[in-house]
Amino acid sequence: MVDEKPPAMRIRQGFQTFLTETRGTTTFKSDLFDLVAVNVKIKDLPFVFHNYKIVNLTDIHLGQWISPEYLDGVVDYVNDLNPDMITMTGDYVSYILEGYEDTLLNSFKKLKAKDGKFAVLGNHDHWADAEKIREILKESDIIDLSNDVYTIEKDGEKLNVSGIDSCTVGADDLDKVLDKLPEDGASILLVHEPDFAKISSKTKKFDLQMSGHSHGGQLVIPGVETTPFRFSYSFKYPIGLYEIDDMIQYTSKGLGTNAFWLRINCKPEITEFYLKTTKRKHVKID
C-alpha cells in the first residue's frame, strides 16, 4: 500500500507525540479545565425540552498533548454529568489518525447520553482521514450529522439537531440541510467553524449553533474576555457566546491546542448547554 500522507505530517506528528509523552502528567484532572454552563433561551421551546442538557466536546486533537489516558478521563467525567445529549464538533485528531484509531473508538463507545450522541467533522479530521473517522463514529453509535438532520421527538414535540461538514475544506452543504430540516420544532446546528454563523443565522432556521475550531485563541484578555488571536473561520466569533439576530452562537475553547501546550487565562473547556423555554405555563386553578 502506498502511503499517501505527506512526510511533513508524519514528522509533525512524531514531534508532537514526543512532546506529549515528555509533558509529565497525561491524566485527566478536573481542576485543569472549565466546565462552562450556558443557558440558551429558545422562543416557544416545548416544555418537554425545558432544562434539556447537552454536553459538547470539541477539538480533542488526540495525540497532540491529549493522551489516551486523558481522553478516557474526559469520557468518565462527561458520563457522570448524565447528559440528555452529547454533541461533538470536530478535530478529534491533528495530523494523522494512524495509531489512534483504537483509542478513539474505545473512548467514543463509552460515551453515554439518554437521547444519543451526534458529531460533525473538523478540518483536521479531513486532513487526517475523514472516511476512517466516520467509520469510528458509526462503530461508536455516534450519528455523523455532516450536512444532515436528526429529529428527536418527545410527547409529539420536536428538537431538530443538524450539522454542517467543515467549511475550511469546502465540505459544507447548507442547502442539503435546509431541504431536510422540518418546519416545526426547535433547531440546533453543529458546525466546527464558528464564523459559519454569519451564514446560518441569516436563514432564521436555527436557535443555537455550537462550534469550536479557535481554541479560544489560547489567550484570553482578562476583563474583556476575548482574544487577540483570531484565525480563518473564527475571526468574528472566536470565544464564548454571541447573539446574532435570533440565533445564539457559542464558541467553545475546546480541549486540545495547536502547536504548543500554551493557554493563558484560557483553560480547556467542556460545555453544558441547558435549553430554556420562554413559554409561560398556564396552570388551571379551580
Strand order of the largest sheet: 1-12-2-3-4-5
Instruction: State the helix count.
Output: 6
CATH architecture: 4-Layer Sandwich
- Supply Rg: 19 Å
**Percent range for helical residues?**
10-25%
Provide the domain count. 1
Portion in beta strands: 15-25%
Secondary-structure-derived class: alpha/beta
State the low-pLDDT regions, or none. Answer: none
The third-level CATH topology is Purple Acid Phosphatase, chain A, domain 2
Describe this structure in words.
The chain is α/β, with parallel strands linked by helices. The strands form 2 sheets. The protein has a 6-stranded mixed β-sheet with strand order 1-12-2-3-4-5, with helices on one face. α2 runs parallel beside α3 (101-110). It has helices spanning 7-21, 68-80, 101-110, 123-139, 174-180, 197-200, and strands at residues 34-42, 52-57, 85-89, 117-120, 142-144, 148-154, 157-164, 186-191, 208-211, 240-244, 247-251, 269-277. It has one domain: Purple Acid Phosphatase, chain A, domain 2, CATH 3.60.21. The relative contact order is 0.19. 23% of the residues lie in helices and 25% in strands. β4 (117-120), α4 (123-139) and β5 form a beta-alpha-beta unit. The protein starts with 6 loop residues before the first helix and ends in a 9-residue tail after the last strand.
